[in-house]
């Protein structure tokens, strides 16, 4: 078992994952390097800081890498949309909550938000994208 903190995200309701990306220091390249390092350990299971043990580890790592990239692209799309930050963040949060409710239900969404506020997910990734010069 690998104890991975927040590196492998938040998992709720079986298959719904969240990339906890609070500001200030999100670095997608380093994050993916960390995921590859964890995968190289060949763990059977992962102990996530939020919501416990998950297995098989390899499947979780693959799925989480996709979630991380998809979330990052969603934030980038809001930044490129021409909306001001408040509107872009609100748009992301609304879409994220709707996805989460379909995936795990309102009660689990509330628990996830207590562990990692959705606004912070947007803020961390927005700061990352701005730091790269992409937007």
Structural features, described:
The protein has 135 residues and is mainly alpha-helical. The chain has a single domain (2-132), classed as 4-Layer Sandwich (Metallo-beta-lactamase, Chain A). The protein has five helices and five strands, in the order βββαββαααα. It has helices at 28-40, 57-80, 85-104, 106-115, 118-132, and strands spanning 2-5, 10-12, 16-18, 46-48, 52-54. The strands form two sheets. It has a three-stranded mixed β-sheet with strand order 1-4-5, with no helix packed on it. The protein has a two-stranded antiparallel sheet with strand order 2-3. A hairpin with a 3-residue loop joins β4 (46-48) and β5 (52-54).
Please tally the β strands and state the result: 5
Distance between the termini: 39 Å
Gyration radius over CA: 15 Å
In order across it, which strands form the biggest sheet?
Answer: 1-4-5
Order of helices and strands: EEEHEEHHHH
- List low-confidence stretches: none
Number of domains: 1
Provide a brief overview of the structure.
The protein has 135 residues and is mainly alpha-helical. 61% of the residues lie in helices and 12% in strands. The protein has a three-stranded mixed β-sheet, with no helix packed on it. A two-stranded antiparallel sheet has the order 2-3.
Characteristics of this structure?
135 residues; mainly alpha; Metallo-beta-lactamase, Chain A; three-stranded mixed sheet; two-stranded antiparallel ribbon
